[in-house]
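Field: COMPLEX_INPUT
Field: COMPONENT_COUNT = three
Field: RESIDUE_TOTAL = 1078
Field: MODE = joint
Values follow.
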Amino acid sequence: MNKLTIAPSPHVHSGDSVRRNMFGVAIALVPALATSLWFFGLDALAVILTSVVACVAVEYLIQKFVLKVPTTISDGSAIVTGLILAFNLPPALPLWIVVVGAVFAIGVCKMTFGGLGQNIVNPAIGGRVFLLMSFPAQMTTWTVPGVDATTGATPLGLMKEGLKSGKSVSEIIGLPETSDLFFGGIGGSLGEVSALAILIGLAFLLIARIITWHIPVAVLGSMAALQGVFYVASPESFASPLFTLLTGGAMLGAVFMATDYVTSPMSGKGMVIYGCGIGVLTVLIRDFGAYPEGMSFAILLMNLVTPLINRFCKPKRFGEIAK
Amino acid sequence: MKTFKIGGIHPNDMKLSAGSTIREMAVPAEVKIPVSQHIGAPAQAVVAVGDTVKVGQLIAQATGFVSANIHSSVSGKVKKIEEFVDANGYKKMGIIIATEGDEWLESIDRTDAIRREVTMEPAEIIKRIQEMGIVGMGGATFPAHVKLSVPPGKKCETLIINAVECEPYLTSDHRLMLEHGEEVLIGVKILMHALGVAKAYVGIENNKPDAIDNLKRLAASFEGIEVVPLKLRYPQGGEKQLIDAITGRQVPSGKLPIDVGAVVQNVGTVFAIYEAVQKNKPLIERIVCVTGKPLREPSNFMVRIGTPVTALIDAAGGMPEDCGKVIGGGPMMGRPFTRLDVPVVKGTSGITLMSIEDSKRREASNCIRCAKCVNVCPMGLEPYLMSTLAKLGRYDDLREAHVMDCIECGCCIFTCPSNRPILDYVRAGKAKVGAQLRAEAAAHKAAAEAAKAKEAEGK
Amino acid sequence: MDFSFIMITVAALAVTGLVAAVILYFVSQKFKVFEDPRIGEVESVLPGANCGGCGFPGCHGMACALVAADDLGSLSCPVGGQAVMAQVATILGKEAVAAAPKVAVVRCNGTCEARPKTLEYDGAKSCAILAANFGGETNCSYGCLGCGDCVGACQFGAIRMNATTGLPEVDDEKCVACGACVKACPKSIIELRNKGPKSRRLFVSCVNKDKGAVAMKACKNACIGCGKCVKECQFDAIKVENNVAYIDFMKCRLCRKCSAVCPTHAIHETNFPPRPAASPDVKAAEAAAPAQTANA
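Field: COMPLEX_OUTPUT
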């Protein structure tokens, strides 16, 4: 007879795996990937490929030669980091800068803390913010998609410049139509050109039960609410809530970056607080800060607050007596 | 449709033996009957080696209130009273009886006739249940009379019958409801009488529509018994979850069901109570579901306590080639057998065989903090956190994290994408914290008594 | 750059620092807790490993206990050993009591070969968890479980698992006899024994309480409680209880007669010089002799 196996219960498993979740996120990114290729062509492809390959290679090399531990690149997390990093970069970015970003994202933000699950900030955002600080000129040279692609400003950049020079919102020239914001065709990072593509990805993530609704809804809802208050108070000096939601990677951030398992809170209540924090910080940075775009910084800040949120936001226990 | 409010999972229910009628298992040539088949103090043997015993005769006496009598399941000679290795691989005291014939005590009514009239007084009923050694048959084996003795100052308002059978694979309760529905309902009536309640609910998950229909039809002629279909969801059979699902009330942390006015009994226990009260029959046999993917004929058997597990597997088509694990109970909460020459006991609700492929857990990787364990925990706890605290030995923090609320249902491991053995550590930590709490309670009690003694001395 | 700007900055920082320092001084004076200064002194000579081997929570706890104790006999630092205790005694002006150095000993020799696995454990790799659920992977429910809780408990890197035997091994040089592994072992296999002269020790490497035949069937190296060693011992150092022999290290004179007669080689010798070359024959003769007398 075979040797029987003994183990404490349970003896069945759902079949879920890290790989399934990571590749699920990758699949959810496909619509956004397709739109970026459609609008930016080969430039986008080069940036995405470089970013993914660099992220995977950095993880492999560190595990193989520095840490000397079994490699975990097959779980797909480095691929997802690579994709999201690429989606946060301008399409015409020199490829060596992309590699620098990947090294920082994986090497510093992820592996120094112990690899998957141990990092305190989202590696892709860490990489992106590092590049924004180090190469501000290259990181804000945007390609406006079209037949003869030109460089220009992002919608949020236009808005910021316009408001700074004393114009009112209606006087600013060159702002794209709302339908363009939704379907794509605006200047910006690879992944933020089409809100629709992101929403398709969100639908997939929810249906596949990879994420729950809490974070995306909290981020977008709180952004819309706060911007709505400002807009109602003074429509001429603040952008409309819809414009805010559809620009500057708000969608990409809310759906793919803020929902990163590792750096977001564990309880539903905590997720809502975290999401609202991101939404409010983003709006404040955009409307009153120096940067036209604040999603990355807001997520980065809230990542750091996550342990604190986990400490104080406990799930509702069974039979808990209300105090 | 009703269900509980927090967490829960949907494992594949795999009820392979649902269509197999209960078969009477042959009386084995020898039975091994452990003296501890229940939660609480082990019973004390009252027979000696060489004694002749009949079926149903008391062979070990309960040694306290939370303890249970043990009766002989065969007639024959007591061969040995000694320690033998149990299913977990540890030695336990037990009585070994060599079978001779099948001679029952005359007091036991062995006819097939259903006795519908309940003639006993409540106190008599509870006494009879205690005498007959009835314990919770769902697997927890908590002595039934303890649950039925409502402490002074508390009042039972609802009786809930647990016929959920939310464990995947197992079908013994399902078959019982189909084949002995009326006896079960009479058992419910007995319990209602004993507890003095007017209302009883029988909770059944909706993956057993035939059982729901059968009991609903029969319940029409019983006053106050309502069959409640429940949405399929694990762990609905957990006592606290079931009360929540049926009454909407949540038993507070650290309290018992009676604190929200409920008493819960398993449907198998109710059947045993019917037999004890109406037929004067002690708990000497039970329905065991023998099932599993590699098994040729997944079946349900009526088995004498003490029958070796191997005999059951043989009767269900023999030990399959590719069997890698034999579980006592279902796959969510059962514990694998370390050897198969061990006996069926009062708590053996099923025997589940797993193929070699299904027997191994997949390799664990880093926690990715996906919060899935938090989402599925039916007690609203944070398994990932408790697991880490237990591993680090931070037992004070673990207590703060309400580890004692954990019902060890296994949802956390089931759902974990990183295959982490979350519950293994939580269970170990819970045992440590439980021991600490008991030690504190004992110290507290001793201090109070010392103070009292001092006071008395002073006077 | 404007020079005055720099000056203002420096001055502001200096004033802030000064104010903070003054506040801190008064606060620390107000909330000062008196502590026997000797506690600090004693703590400084303790090793600072905070291993808890002495039975106190860390070296500070030990230092408090040492200062409070009337006589140091009952307290000893297993890590620092005699040298540290002597220093402590000088500081406190008390007498140091000599304690024989000890070492952790693993009392199981159920190697993978001698004690074949009959089961495969697949839960979390922890002896405590395995023991709480099951008797073990072999037919011996007393022996080493091999998950290495002792290795994890050792702060001095003195225990490691031997991959071939599947059993833990203690490094005499590194072991400080803090007892962490003794506490960690759910089967109570590890024992602290006197290190012995030149690290020479004799001990029964088995704790199986099963009857001889059962123990033997589960493990070829098991002590079967036959009592031959008891008869052989001239110093009354060996006792058989619950089918297992135990050598009292306070009485044992390391004559090695017991290990020579043990039929299952359950009695282990450490760091002894090899027996004379003729030893196999001697052993055979010794083994044969009592048998003959028994026959006669």
